[in-house]
Give the backbone structure.
Amino acid sequence: HNLPPGLEYLNQLDQIIIHQQVELLEAILGTETSSKYEIKNHLGQRVYFAVEENGCFDRKLCSPIRSFTIRIADNAGREVIRVIRPLRCNSCWFPCFLQELEVQSPPGTIAGYVVQNWDPFLPKFTIQNQSKEDVLKIIGPYATCGCFEDVDFEVKALNEMTTIGKISKYWSGFVNNVFTNTANFGIQVPVDLDVRIKAVMIGACFLIDLMFFENSLDGL
């Protein structure tokens, strides 16, 4: 009941696959272009399509800390989720200016936030609802290089003791990672999780991609 328009697709999902599409120019010349993603269910059926909006200056000089707006549309072309990332610091030495991501659904209405938490060793984030109340934690590994395997960011309860899901960066092979910088992620969460929080988890996945896997050699 009272689901934001378009989020009914997420209502029965406990697994979400995010696949980055690679532009021909980027694949051949290594030129960074605006990111485009397909968001699929566990059967590989596309439920959303996402496009990153920012300037060439941001992509060239500010990546991977660049600001962006990602517009997520359903298969009818209706924008249902908007992810907004301001330009923030990406260093544990600046705890006052860490990452914060805003997720809207429908566009213009806050669904929740992803807030980076300061930690000298581990990637840590808090998932918040529209009222900025803490809901979940995301804790990554000490090293995100992967070394020919998947990299898992665990989704935990607020006490950080109980794991309820994960965001995984799938290793997709040497050629893809080095030459095309493609990304494939999986999100696993409880099926009964609030669909607004599921939308925020998609935003968290984009943030993790930009922060830790934007470099084409990451994920090997």
